[in-house]
Design a protein that fits this description.
This protein is of the alpha+beta class. It is 40% helix and 16% strand. It has 3 domains: 2-76, no CATH class; 100-226, NADH Oxidase (3-Layer(aba) Sandwich); 231-263, putative fmn-dependent nitroreductase like domains (putative fmn-dependent nitroreductase like fold). The chain has helices at 2-17, 26-42, 50-70, 79-85, 100-111, 130-137, 177-191, 204-211, 260-263, and strands at 122-127, 160-167, 195-199, 217-226, 232-237, 246-247, 253-258. The strands form 2 sheets. The chain has a 4-stranded antiparallel sheet, sandwiched between helices. Strands 5-7-6 form a 3-stranded mixed sheet. 23% of the residues are buried. The protein binds flavin mononucleotide. Flavin mononucleotide is lined by residues 87-88, 90, 141-143, 197-201, 232, 245, 255.
């Protein structure tokens, strides 16, 4: 309680200094406060070393987490946290089910995503059904860079699938709609406490037959979803390093990511 009062006192002073609108709800004021902490932690103006910035960042995250806990605000991830957590997971707690309602809500995020020429040619098939999941699983190829691994074992397989299709009667060119839609779904899955893997290595003929799809519907991607049972660690990929992901001795998935300075080729201030 004392801590709560202390936080509130600090916050009130801060709010007054910043001329915060008095009619705003307590929650939205706290959210602004948290945002300022985040901004401070990420500020480019902060002229200090990378390691120190990282520590400040961690400290700021801890404070904002504490504030959210104290005021019982549901913990909200920043977009960067959400993206960092949205990895490709290939092993799941299969007994943790994912409902068709949840899958529908995820497709709704895709529905609201931008679409080239606003043609919206994407269609979806969802499955939260064990029997159907088993059949879909057989049409997929997992982790090409891990040749000694045949994909998730029984009990570690996805609890649900979203199959992304294009309706060729609308267009045969969906530009990058499926990429954007997929990311919306994967971010939404993370927000809901799930995770998954985008899969392009699909036996499309077999899957199309299984789903009894008409000719005009073309399979683009399969999103395998569930409660992740593995840890994915992002490593630094040096300019001439190996981009292939690998598994370490603790069975963590290690994924090298290129450095920011290696991908921004020109910067005009
Ligand atoms: C368009 C696309 C297709 C992919 N296809 C497959 C696939 O067929 N099988 C698979 O196991 N992983 C597949 N992946 C997952 C990638 O291997 C994974 O995203 C990559 O290793 C980076 O890991 P990260 O998502 O954790 O950053 C695909 C990812 C994308 C974006």
């Amino acid at each position: 309680m004392q801590v709560r009062v202390l936080f509130w006192a600090h916050f009130e002073t801060f709010a007054k200094q910043k001329n915060c609108h008095s009619e705003r709800s307590e929650e939205s004021q706290i959210r602004s406060f948290i945002l300022v902490i985040d901004r401070f932690a990420n500020a480019k103006l902060l002229r200090t070393s990378y390691t120190r910035k990282k520590s400040i960042n961690k400290f700021a995250n801890l404070i904002s987490f504490a504030i959210q806990k104290i005021y019982l605000i549901p913990y909200t991830m920043t977009i960067k946290e959400l993206i960092l957590k949205t990895r490709c997971y290939r092993r799941f707690y299969e007994d943790v089910t994912i409902t068709s309602q949840t899958l529908t809500e995820l497709v709704d995020l895709a529905r609201l995503t931008s679409s080239a020429k606003n043609m919206q040619p994407l269609r979806y098939v969802i499955s939260a059904n064990r029997e159907m999941n088993t059949k879909i699983f057989k049409t997929l190829a997992w982790a090409g860079y891990l040749p000694d691994w045949d994909g998730p074992a029984e009990g570690e397989r996805p609890a649900g699938y979203i199959i992304v299709l294009r309706d060729n009667t609308i267009t045969e060119n969906n530009y990058c709609d499926h990429g954007l839609a997929t990311q919306s779904i994967m971010l939404g899955a993370t927000e809901k406490g799930f995770g998954g893997c985008v899969i392009a290595a699909i036996n499309k003929q077999e899957l199309s037959r299984l789903l009894n799809l008409p000719q005009n519907l073309e399979i683009l991607l399969v999103l395998a979803l569930g409660k992740p049972k593995e840890t994915v660690i992002l490593d630094v990929l040096e300019e001439n390093g190996d981009h292939k992901y690998w598994r370490d001795k603790d069975n963590n998935q290690r994924v090298p990511k290129r450095k920011l300075e290696n991908i921004i080729l020109q910067s005009f201030d």
